[in-house]
C-alpha cells in the first residue's frame, strides 16, 4: 500500500486529503481507523468496511468530513493502468463534489475544473507510476 497526504489550498479552499493506493483487504484495519477518526459512521462506515475487507480490485472509495475539510480516498489495487486511471478519475470526481459542496462552488463551470486540476497535480508524483503498465510492476 502507498500512502500520500495532499493539501488543496487556494484562495477559497483549504482541504486535506489522505490517499491510499494499491489497497488490498490486508490494509482494511488501518483505513477503517482513519475513517472512524474522520467521524464516518453508520451505514457509510459499514459500506466502507465491507468494501475494504472484501479487497476487490478495481474499486475505490472516498469519504469526507465537510465541516473539518478532510477526506480519506482509497484506490484499490487495479488490474491495469487503464483501470487505475478510471478509479482515480472516479474518486477525484467524488472529492471535487465534496469540496464544491462544502465551499458552495458551482458543480458546473471552470472553478470546479481547476480544483480537479490541482488535485491531479498533487496526486501525480505517485499516480504517474500507476498510470503506465510497465512502471506499475515496481509499484504494485
Overview of this structure, please?
- The protein contains five helices and four strands; from the N terminus they run ββααββααα.
- The chain has helices at 28-37, 42-54, 81-103, 110-127, 133-139, and strands spanning 2-9, 14-23, 60-65, 70-76.
- It has a four-stranded mixed β-sheet, with helices on both faces.
- Helix 1 (28-37) packs antiparallel against helix 2 (42-54) and helix 3 (81-103) packs across helix 4.
- The longest helix is centred in the middle third of the chain and has 23 residues, at 81-103.
Tell me briefly what this model is.
This protein is of the alpha+beta class and 140 residues long.
Q: Tags for this entry?
A:
4-stranded mixed β-sheet; alpha+beta; globular; 4 strands; about 140 residues
How many E strands? 4
Shape: globular
- How are helices and strands ordered from N to C? EEHHEEHHH
Structural class determined from secondary elements: alpha+beta
Radius of gyration, taken over Cα atoms and rounded to an integer in Å: 15 Å
Task: State the major sheet.
Answer: 4 strands, mixed
The end-to-end distance, rounded to whole angstroms, is 8 Å
User: Stretches where pLDDT falls below 50 for ≥5 residues?
Assistant: none
